[in-house]
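*** Backbone structure tokens ***
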Amino acid sequence: MDAPVFYYDLSSPYAYLAAQRVDEVLPLKPEWRPIVFGAVIRQRNKVPWSFADGRESHFDEIARRARERGLPPVRYPEGWPVETYSVAPLRAALLASDQDQRRAVSLELYRTAFAQGQHLADEEVVLDAAERAGMDREAVRSGIQRQEIKEQLRSDTDEALARGVAGVPTVAVGERLFWGDDRLEEAAAALAG
């Protein structure tokens, strides 16, 4: 069986929670693949929970899960999700030299956004996080503008949509999709079975 794929966007607090444990829960390390959540919701004609009535229950649930998992209290950047959305951190993750570096930079970007409450729409904040994750700041600065990186993000997002991905986080195991931080164990069982 091919390695599972972990689809994520750096603006999602549920994907933040999943990213903290996906490698430990799944019996086979997944390929981390950033996608543009905004394109997914437009294509699926969805209203994300962060824009819907009753979103406070999601904030409570995210806070509870973070607390239970020993994570720092979740802090949302001011203006989240609209004013803080950017594809620059997703492109920075694509610039990673390998999957280990992609994990490291993605986790650092998640910490920056949801533990420190900083805007990932601020390019300097993204570059700071990439540098802390061991990436070359100036290479990331120029790399996030490269056409092939923009095309790779678009292509990966299109591939996820064609596969049926409806939101983030999603783990793909073969043809099966497991959408949600609370479905990682199901994905693990599918991989083990």
In short: Strands lie at 5-8, 31-34, 170-173, 176-179. The mean pLDDT is 94. The chain has one domain: 5-192. The radius of gyration is 16 Å.
